[in-house]
């Protein structure tokens, strides 16, 4: 593992402070209510990061085991979960072995499924999730949409965060591997202290983008029925080349 560790894990919640986690968790809960067959209370989260969705869903009454392969992201999650019953576990999603299965539903958000870049690894993820779900259990996941990526990706983006004692600059440089459907984002992060000192680090993250029917084929090949596809965390928009994130709902057979 080469990413989501060290200082990047510490800064993660700052970088995504404006991400609407509460709205997203509410949308997942709504999908669970709408599409679940039978009582659905025990959830398995794949690639939970610093645990914000899990903590939000716990407040909605779910019991959650949340997994990630980054010890540093899990350490942040556990710090935030002092008053929570969410169980955080170190797990690589390509080799899931989580105690307490079968779960009623699983979810994997913020395009994390794309971090497994190859077909072989992706198949392991779907089969692993299938193994951990009860019959008719739901799998809800978000993935990066190829149509938007190919038409609109930004080769260079710069963002800035003002802190009490520093300014943080993040430069993101993206390149695409069209044959492998991979986007590599090189993040250069500069922490400019107000006392004139600075530190910096770089991290490259490689993530795969998909088309809907391709994802449907993966699901059916690994024992899931695709139920529906949303243009992000809303049911009021149709999927277009402006849709960067697709939320899939599938049922385990
Ligand atoms: C963009 S973050 C998303 C975190 C969280 N789902 C959220 O919405 O904030 C991607 C996460 O995927 C995790 N990840 C990447 N590859 C993984 C793998 N093979 N197994 C488990 N977690 C993985 C990273 O450690 C990171 O926490």
Mind explaining what this structure looks like?
Helices cover 29% and strands 37% of the residues. The protein has helices at 6-15, 21-35, 52-59, 71-80, 119-132, 146-152, 212-221; strands at residues 42-45, 63-68, 87-90, 103-108, 133-145, 156-162, 166-177, 182-193, 198-210, 224-231, 245-252. It is an alpha/beta fold. The model has no long low-confidence stretch (mean pLDDT 97). The radius of gyration is 18 Å and the shape is globular. Strands 1, 2, 3, 4, 5, 6, 7, 8, 9, 10 and 11 form an eleven-stranded mixed beta sheet that branches. The chain has seven helices and eleven strands. It binds S-adenosylmethionine. Residues 4, 47-49, 52-53, 68-70, 73, 92-94, 109-110, 112, 115-116 line the site of S-adenosylmethionine.
Q: Alpha-carbon distance between the termini?
A: 32 Å
Q: Classify the oligomer.
A: single chain
* Heterogens: S-adenosylmethionine
The total of beta strands comes to: 11
Task: Bin the helical content.
Answer: 25-40%
Number of helices: 7
- Estimate the mean pLDDT confidence: 97
């Amino acid at each position: 593992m080469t990413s989501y560790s060290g200082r990047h894990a510490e800064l993660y919640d700052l970088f995504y402070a404006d991400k609407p986690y509460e709205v997203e968790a509410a949308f997942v809960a709504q999908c669970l209510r709408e599409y679940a067959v039978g009582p659905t209370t025990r959830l398995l989260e794949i690639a939970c990061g610093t645990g914000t969705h899990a903590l939000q869903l716990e407040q909605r009454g779910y019991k959650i085991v949340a997994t990630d392969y980054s010890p540093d992201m899990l350490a942040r999650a556990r710090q935030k979960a002092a008053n929570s019953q969410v169980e955080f576990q170190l797990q690589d999603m390509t080799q899931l072995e989580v105690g307490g299965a079968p779960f009623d539903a699983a979810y994997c958000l913020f395009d994390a499924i794309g971090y497994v870049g190859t077909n072989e690894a992706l198949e392991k993820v779907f089969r692993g999730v299938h193994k951990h779900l009860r019959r008719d259990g739901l799998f809800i996941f978000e993935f990066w949409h190829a149509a938007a990526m190919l038409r609109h990706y930004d080769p260079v983006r710069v963002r800035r965060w003002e802190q009490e004692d520093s300014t943080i600059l993040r430069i993101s440089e993206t390149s695409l591997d069209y044959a492998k459907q991979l986007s590599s984002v090189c993040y250069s992060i500069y922490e400019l202290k107000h006392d004139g000192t600075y530190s910096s680090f770089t991290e490259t993250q490689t993530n795969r983008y998909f088309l809907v029917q391709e994802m449907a084929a993966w699901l059916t090949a690994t024992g899931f029925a695709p139920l529906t596809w949303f243009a992000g965390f809303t049911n009021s928009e149709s999927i277009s080349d402006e849709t960067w994130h697709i939320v899939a709902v599938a049922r385990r057979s």
